[in-house]
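pasting for the record
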Amino acid sequence: MRPLTRQRLRLSGGTELSFIAAGDASKPAVLLLHGFPGSAGYFRDVMPELSRAAYVIAPDLPGFGESDVLPAPSFPSFGQAISELLDRLAVGPRYIYLHDFGAPVGFQIAMQAPEQVLGHIVQNANAHRTGLGSQWAPVMDYWSHPNPENEAAATAHLTFEGVRNGYLGGMPSEVATRIPAETWEEDWREMQLPGRMETQRALVKDYGNYVARFEEIAEYLARWQPPSLMVWARHDPFFDLAETLSWMEALPRMEGHVLDAGHKLLETHATVAVSLMVDFIGQTQQKSEGTQARE
């Protein structure tokens, strides 16, 4: 297996997007979308094994990792950037990994071309209001009343301690000790680069627009019923566990697994997660091939 290497793509708007692509491009594609805080490096421990079964694309979202900041960051503009990447790589049908901030981007891409979606892998991603627990109150107040005081409360997590909490928050100590400090220290270093904090603040605000699309997303899920795998971290301090039931009600055939992990599930449970992902891809491909044979 070749080592994972980064590539860069200059987008039509002039900024550059950093990404990792691995595997045989003739195989089904898997688009891996990270959340906050992080980059494509979040998938470093699943990409080698996953790329044996699929063509894997993991971008740094704009303003994260090694990707440039966009002039007007928003989830739709992120979706446009990643869609351009997929077009330039000639990626057709794809599985889309939905996680945290990656979910609004992934849904933007999926709902533009639902016939191209082979399935979703859902890891601690909101698509229903049940995921918005009491911890979201300051952010929701900001969406309703976007004044400086509410903005300060909604973005209070944009500190070194907040980035660290993205990795360790809510986790049992014996699980938390498995994550080296270098991971969140690197995220914090990257967040200090020009334009990065402004990007984070813009996304906190724009997430309210994403929540406003939940009914539209529900219609997409109800109509298309995309094959889906849930790999959920039960100790996530941001997304309530009740969200898992909403997902499974929306997608009655969804395969669901709840693991003893935190928000950054792949930092501690990559081996379990990638095994489930490879099996899911294999099973859905077999079903698809069987359907095509009958037709």
